[in-house]
Each structure stands twice: as C-alpha cells, then as structure tokens.
Design brief:
By secondary structure, the protein is mostly helical. Helices cover about 65% and strands about 5% of the residues. The chain contains 22 helices and 10 strands. β3 and β4 form a beta hairpin. The chain is globular. It starts with a helix and ends with a helix. The C terminus is likely disordered. It is found in: Cell membrane. Choline/H+ antiporter. Belongs to the CTL (choline transporter-like) family.
Length: about 650
C-alpha cells in the first residue's frame, strides 16, 4: 500500500511539473509559445495563423485541435489574397506586397481571413450560389495544382467543428456567469425545503409521506395537462407538425418546444410514470404502512441526533476536494506534451520522412541534401520520452485513485452515520443512555480504528468501477465493428460488472454498519451482514426497499417543485420577477442545473434517513437474534417498533422505561 502511494505521488508530481493548463486557455503556436499571454513576445499577438489550412482537413484535428502545419501568433489576420508563389514573385516587382506578408514570418498560403475564437479562418462568401474567397473560386496550391475553394471549406470545417462546440461551451459559461446567484438561491430553497420535510417527518411521518405521494401524483398530473394544452394549442400552426428527426440537433431548446411531437412524447412519458406510481401504491399499500412506521422510529433517532442532518455537507466537501484534485491533475497530464517536429518531405521515397527533427539544427543536417525540399515542421503536442508514452496509463491511474478516494469518502460517511444511529438503538434507556456527542464520537472511531477497513471496501468497489470504465471505452472503440460475437461479449461483461457493482455497494453499505456496531474488520463484517440479511430477506424487501422508494418520491417532489418554480422564473412567466430574470443564451442551462442540484441536495439530506433506517433495521435483526425479551436478555428496540413488528412482549422493566 505504501509503495503504491509513492508511485501515485510520483505520477502526480510528474503531471504538475510537465503539465501546462495554459494550453487549454491560450492558442499555441508551433514553437509552444502562447498567443496573447502577458509578459511574453507574443503579448500583442493574440491570434493564431495557420500556414497551410488545407492540412486541417483531418479527423485528428477533432482530437487534439492541432493541424500538421506551421502555426504562428500574429497581431491581425492577413486581408490580402495571395499564394506563396505570388509572394515570391512580388519580391522583386512588388516590394510593398512582399513587405506586407513578411510580418507573418513564415512563407505559406495567405488569403483573406476572419477571426474566430482567436484563430484566422478564410473569409468565405457566396455569389450566385458559388462559394468564393476574395472573388475567386480556385487557386494554385504552389505545386502546380489548381484547387477549389471548397477544399478550403473542408479544411476549415476540421477545426470549426471543435470551435463550434467551444462556442456553445462559452455561451453556457456566460449563462452560468450571469445566473449563478439565482441558481444558488434555488438550491438554498431546495435545502430549506428538504430540511423542513425532515423536521416535519419527525412528528407526522405518515401524513407527510402521503402528502409526498399525492404531491408527486399532482405534479405529474399537472404536467400531463400542460403537455396536452401545449399539444392542442400548436394544432394548425405552420411547422408544428414537423418531427424531431426533420429538424435535427438544435442547441436552442425552444425549437423543439414548437413541435407537437415533443409535447406528445412528454405527455406519453408522464402518463406512463403516473400509471406506474398509482399501481405501485395499490399493490404496496400495506408495506408502505410498515415502512412509514419504521421511518417514525428513524425520525425519533434523528430528533435526538440532529447533527446527523448536516453530515452530508462533510461528505460533499470531501468529494468536491477529490473531484477538484482529479480534474486539475488530469488537465496537467493532458497538457504535459511538448511541440514535436517531424520531417515533411516532398519525395515519397525519402527515408527521413516522418522522423522527429529539431527546427533549430535542421538546416545544418544532410536531410535537405538527400531529400530536396524537405522541411522540419510542427506535427503535434506530445513527446518521445518514457513519461509521454505512458500518459494514458497515468490518466487511468489518476482516474482509479479518484474513484478510490470518492468511495472512501462515501464509506466514511456511511460508517459515521451508522455508528451514531447504532448508539441510539443500543441505548437501553432512550435518550438517557445515548452518548453526549454520538456523531463526533462515531466519526472519531471511524478515523482511528476503521480507516483500513473502509479503504479496503472502497478499493474493491473502485477496481470494479474502473473495469466498467475500461469496458465502456472498449465498447465505444469497437462500436463500428461487424463482429457480433465481440459486441455480445462486451454487452455481457458490461451487464455482469454493473450487477457486481450494485451488489458490492449493497454489501459494503451493510458491512460498514456492522463495522460501526462491532468494530470488526471488513471481511468479517461483510460476511456477517450478508448472512444476517439472508436470514431476514423478507423484511429486507418489505422495509428497506419500500423505504427507499418513499424517500425517492420525496426527492422527486423537492426537485420537481423547485424545478417548476425555476422554469416559470427563467421563462419570465412570473410577472413579479419578470424584470429580474437575466438575459440568457439557453434558459435550460440554469434550469437543468437547478433541477439536478435540487435533486442532489434532497438526496444528501434524505440519505441520512435512508442510512438511519438501514442501521435500525440491522440493529433490530441483531436484537431479535441475540435477545428474547426476558429480564436477562431484554430487547433494545422501542415499544412502538416492538408493537409494529409483532414480537414477544417486552420485559417489564423495558416496558416501563
């Protein structure tokens, strides 16, 4: 374990030493210098100029945004049309034109260009339906071959596809920049709503959860009515009968809302969800009553240990630190390449073609003599060292450590909460026998005594998750293959490891509860938890899963309620706040953020209840097996829980207490 930690520290150190995130922010020329960065020679040269943009028509451009051609930082794009042959001819006859093109440093193809995201691109125009550049439809490429302007368009599209995605990303960033405080207000409202529900749950668990259920049904019912109203309102409007397939992918979500098919699809989906929920309520009504009774007991436990409601904030901060460190390290690893130059020869039989070279010493070598016209040109960002060859392995190691740390943070939270709630259950006289600071005491025990067990459980889960990531990567790479057996094998492996991950999460969760109760190691606790659950498998299905379902309905109600308010707010349908709504490029950006964020906030608070119920359930099963209700072995469960589950009578002392 220590040796592995040392190796990972070496990987992180190498990434932070060799990486340079400025490559993501600034355009980079062929010499590895950044365009427009302060305190450099290129401080006033903020635009990237491509020497031969025709070489950008390559699928590799979509991967690393680097063309196999010289790239220069310039202060402005050229606004004159000329090829390199024309510039050479003007050296003697038109010195003014030659002096103009000298500012671009390297000889190459130059034509009128426009700036897109700090990069020079041809300024295309259409006349009489014909694509032109500087009123010309063809040009000579310097090798005696006449090329069409459409070749330039294909080359420019190689980068434009990536830049369009970046443009959408910038607009999304702008939307976040001007709406972040409204998003925080909505998430704060979701937090207060979740806290209010949890506090009320302590006193009116049954009534509140039925309100949850009918609230969800009501929200979905309103959604069905609204979808039908929109569907009927669009009837007869030109263009509303088009299909989503007809209009293709659009970044403006409002376009899809003008189609009847969109609202019909929403209505069908909501109707299906409504029917499923109603049928589940009908067939599970008795089990729901049992689950509500157990939640009341959990409400009492949380009522005595209110600090547990805020522990998810600690888990969130730990996971945020893990995500931040992983993301920064991944960026440093991805940007740790150096400019690599390779020999570009005009002759196909040149033995030095595609070999690495040094542009500063290239002219002193015999390559130019053996291969006339050969040049040492920029190829890509990377490296030939052992470190650069294994960057992908380092990225996998970084991802693995990220998964491990995240699972450890979750395990620490589960063990801490389980220890706090177990101290409540095993207190013979409640609340007199509950420790003074049960949450802090449980956290201290988990850190001091159970770190190894928690790390081991997180390690097993992280290995399975990494295998799933690798399988997804292989499936993406082999998606176009015609080998049906390979696709079938991958599908089976993905399904098996998905099931394995779900099973391990279930076992780990209950193992951490047993660790918090008895303090045994991970393997022993996992074995005892598994066999204990198997001996009470019916109760597991009835109590645990129905409780999870009810808590899930609560999350949906919180996220749905806040989401509906956010929708009316960002679409300016609330007259009181109409003037306060920021002008957005895509209103769905903050809306989706609010909905997902509200669900996660509710999940964080409701997960405390879920952990409480699971802990009390395992403690109850242990209580039934270890004790018989006699004076010598009294039950530790509360009188109300005892009556609900219909076991033997409590001992007189317990009943009085």
């Amino acid at each position: 374990m220590v040796f592995k930690s040392i190796k990972l520290c070496i990987v992180y150190f190498a990434a932070w030493v060799h990486g340079d995130p400025r490559k993501v922010v600034y355009p980079t020329d062929s010499y590895g210098q950044f365009c427009g960065q302060t305190d450099t020679l290129n401080e006033k040269k903020t635009i990237l100029f491509y020497f031969n943009i025709l070489k950008c028509a390559s699928p590799l451009v979509l991967i690393n945004l680097q063309c196999p051609t010289t790239q220069l930082c310039v202060s402005k794009c050229p606004d004159r049309f000329a090829t390199y042959i024309d510039v050479q001819a003007s050296y003697r006859y038109k010195p003014d034109q030659w002096n103009y093109f000298r500012q671009f440093c390297k000889p190459g193809f130059n034509n009128p260009r426009k700036v897109v995201l700090k990069r020079c691109f041809p300024d295309f125009s259409t006349k009489n339906g014909v694509l032109t550049v500087a009123n010309q439809t063809t040009f000579k490429d310097g090798r005696g071959k006449t090329r069409n302007v459409t070749d330039l368009r294909e080359a420019a599209n190689g980068i434009n596809n990536v830049l369009d995605a970046r443009s959408v990303g910038m607009k999304i960033f702008e939307d976040y920049a001007i709406s972040w405080y409204w998003i925080l207000i909505a998430l704060f409202f979701a937090m207060m709503l979740s806290l209010l529900f949890l506090v009320l749950l302590r006193f009116t668990a049954g009534v509140l959860f039925w309100i949850f259920i009918f609230g969800v049904i009501g929200i979905i019912g309103y959604g069905i009515w609204h979808c039908y109203w929109e569907y009927d309102h669009l009837k007869g409007i030109p263009g509303s009968d088009l299909t989503v397939y007809d209009i293709g992918f659009q970044t403006d979500f409002k376009v899809y809302l003008q189609l009847r098919q969109t609202w019909l699809a929403f209505m069908v989906i909501l109707c299906g969800v409504e029917v499923i929920i109603i049928l589940m309520l009908i067939f599970l009504r008795n089990r729901i009553r049992i689950a509500i009774a157990l939640l009341k007991e959990g409400s009492r436990a949380i009522g005595y240990i209110m600090s547990t409601l805020f522990y998810p904030i600690v888990t969130f901060l730990l996971i945020a630190i893990c995500i931040s460190y992983w993301a920064v390290t991944a960026v440093f690893l991805a940007t740790s390449g150096e400019p690599v130059y390779k020999v570009m020869a005009n002759q196909t039989l040149c033995k030095y073609a595609n070999l690495t070279c040094d542009p500063e010493t290239f002219n002193t070598t015999n390559v130019t003599k053996l291969c006339p016209g050969a040049q040492c040109t920029f190829a890509f960002y990377g490296g030939e060292s052992l470190y650069h060859k294994y960057i992908f392995i380092f990225q996998l190691a970084n991802a693995f450590v990220f998964l491990w740390l995240v699972n450890f943070a979750i395990a620490l939270g589960q063990c801490t909460l389980a220890g706090a709630f177990a101290s409540y259950y095993w207190a013979y006289r409640k609340p007199a026998d509950i420790p003074l600071w049960p949450l802090f005491s449980s956290f201290g025990r988990a850190i001091r005594y159970h770190t190894g067990s928690l790390a081991f459980g997180a390690l097993i889960l992280a290995i399975v998750q990494l295998i799933r990531v690798i399988l997804e990567y292989l499936d993406h790479k082999l998606k176009g293959t015609q080998n049906s057996f390979t696709r079938f094998l991958l599908c089976c492996l993905k399904c098996c490891f998905w099931c394995l991950e779900k099973f391990l999460k279930f076992i780990n969760r209950n193992a951490y509860i047993m660790i918090a109760i008895y303090g045994k190691n991970f393997c022993t606790s996992a074995k005892e938890a598994f066999f204990l659950l198997m001996r009470n498998v019916v109760r597991v299905a009835v109590l645990d899963k129905v409780t999870d379902f009810l808590l899930f309905l609560g999350k949906i109600l919180v996220a749905g309620g806040v989401g509906v308010l956010a929708f009316f707010f960002f679409t300016q349908r609330i007259p009181v706040f109409a003037e306060e709504v920021p002008m957005l490029n895509y209103y769905w950006v903050p809306l989706l953020t609010v909905i997902i964020g509200s669900y996660l906030v509710a999940h964080g608070f409701f997960s405390v209840y879920a952990m409480c119920v699971d802990t009390l359930f395992l403690c109850f099963c242990e209580d039934l097996e270890r004790n018989d209700g006699s004076t010598a072995k009294p039950y530790f469960m509360s009188a109300s829980l005892h009556r609900i589950l219909g076991k033997k009578k409590l001992s007189p002392k317990k009943a009085v207490g």
